[in-house]
DNA sequence: AAATTACGTCAACAGTACTGACATAATCCC
DNA sequence: GGGATTATGTCAGTACTGTTGACGTAATTT
């Protein structure tokens, strides 16, 4: 293991360059930024025996109260089996409650409890703090410029999901199918 | 399961707001953006039986040829046991070679092979394309503004690692394929 | 010579994802 | 009415990536 095996290719000693127009700088920054961004809530989650999956579920249930299981799966892009464990734990710990769908009784509308709302806020707080600091530190005058860039990074087909949220409109349940 | 259990908290029907100054919009966008950003190479990796961990190792070995195992662990912030499996596979498949450290023969300097270099480029290509498109779509005139924001999102202690890379990208804006 | 360092490896386990299969209740449609 | 479909739940097995802890070896340091 110390040396190369007989048939191994020769080592390339030069660093990869941007010769091909590959934006390694931003690729790398995105990795570091996201890693640290998610590390903030990870600390808190550990105290609850939760993981990132719990955070994501909690986030979207708080953002779109009353969404159904199917809608949640569509937003998270995971399978129902994968969601099941995590959602069950959040329900068992009284962070989320399910209500039978009013129109379609097969559906389960998901709502946060006060406890779930509080945790979602606690998890988002350090992330928001980091974002605010980053905007200041980077001298970003227009917050929306970052927003626009991030949104443009999302697959076009999925951008619709993002805009579902009633930005400032609190108290009003919105377009559920 | 249909209804709330007896002691469950009451459902909150209002969407979480930005009232507390929490920047949910960017938090959410960051999640979607990173998810789609990583989904690009995931397709290619699947063909090799590799995962994201392989990609990250490959990326940094190409970016910093000759880095030691310890340095790689420090950049990735994972344990050596976690790195071992992934690194071994990349070495066995002749994407990476190890050379004994010249000064300290205990060390293993990691280098990409031509094969490893090619794969790293192939993985980065769609990501770079996405970034370039996002910069254009969002009307970002100054590429560096995004760079600065992302860098500011990284923990201060870790920013040093980012700037290790010799060749800088400053002048290059696009010209991608 | 002893201690430390760099790396490798074995074992066990956790969290999150996947596929496939099957069950139940509710709704839809002929 | 009755069959098909839909929404959800659940069981079983598997993969990938991460963890901790322990131990071994070679090389370097003290």
TrEMBL record, chains A, B:
<feature type="domain" description="HTH marR-type">
    <location>
        <begin position="23"/>
        <end position="155"/>
    </location>
</feature>
<keyword id="KW-0805">Transcription regulation</keyword>
<protein>
    <submittedName>
        <fullName>MarR family transcriptional regulator</fullName>
    </submittedName>
</protein>
<dbReference type="InterPro" id="IPR036388">
    <property type="entry name" value="WH-like_DNA-bd_sf"/>
</dbReference>
<dbReference type="InterPro" id="IPR036390">
    <property type="entry name" value="WH_DNA-bd_sf"/>
</dbReference>
<keyword id="KW-0804">Transcription</keyword>
<dbReference type="Pfam" id="PF12802">
    <property type="entry name" value="MarR_2"/>
</dbReference>
<dbReference type="InterPro" id="IPR000835">
    <property type="entry name" value="HTH_MarR-typ"/>
</dbReference>
<dbReference type="InterPro" id="IPR039422">
    <property type="entry name" value="MarR/SlyA-like"/>
</dbReference>
<dbReference type="InterPro" id="IPR023187">
    <property type="entry name" value="Tscrpt_reg_MarR-type_CS"/>
</dbReference>
<keyword id="KW-0238">DNA-binding</keyword>
